[in-house]
What we know:
Helices cover 74% and strands 0% of the residues. The protein is mostly helical.
Amino acid sequence: MPQTTAELDEALTHAAAAGFTAALVEDWSGAVDAAMTARLAALDLKSLPVRKRIRTAVLTRLAILQPHKLAARRAVLFLALPVNAALALWLLARTADAMWRAAGDTATDFNWYTKRAILGAVYAATEIAWFGDDTPDGCKTEAFLDARIESVMQYEKLKAGLRSACPITEKSSP
């Protein structure tokens, strides 16, 4: 596995020439997810509120990518091609799942899907914002992520309010 951005760029060039770019991007994404999971396992996430666990997971993954920011941007551009849409969705879903599992999520109902879909959207948007963040400490990215998480929390509050105002009762079968 390439260790430096230059090695990764060279590997991407060779892989593209041989038609193996998708496999390389998939393997690299998996390696970043594994490194993120290992770093998060070393932290005491369970003592944090859920929003801080997710924030920590997103920022940890971006910190791992930081030395390879140009290569990460190229990988995202590759995944943005219509022919790679299925792979892009698969990798984003795998990353969101790794983040939720590291955060201690144990949902097995429909919530499992919605949590990962929402986090996937938050992560993808945050990664795009990160590409344009030229601050040395990443404060623009952190502010962007915090605003996305707050938006999700407002949505969840709205849902809870609607549920309590309009309780749904199950219909009995005839």
